[in-house]
């Protein structure tokens, strides 16, 4: 079984979300290794600050892909509840 055939069994939306999450994990592991490499609290804080930008981008990217993937299957009321939930998460993160 070839690699392309193996990935053909996954739904494109799920595969896209998984790839973004794998990239996020790679970024997190790389950041941790850089922190160990520099062995400095100041540098570790700078690296950690950079990661604070990556997290929300990954979250919103995966949510957007997932919502686009299921938008045709949800009725308007359910879709509004999901969007309201996302809005509450954003409001909660602002404080």
From TrEMBL:
It comes from the Bacteria. The chain crosses the membrane at residues 13-38, 45-70, 76-93. Keywords: Membrane, Transmembrane, Transmembrane helix. InterPro entries: Uncharacterised_YqhV (IPR020390). This is DUF2619 domain-containing protein.
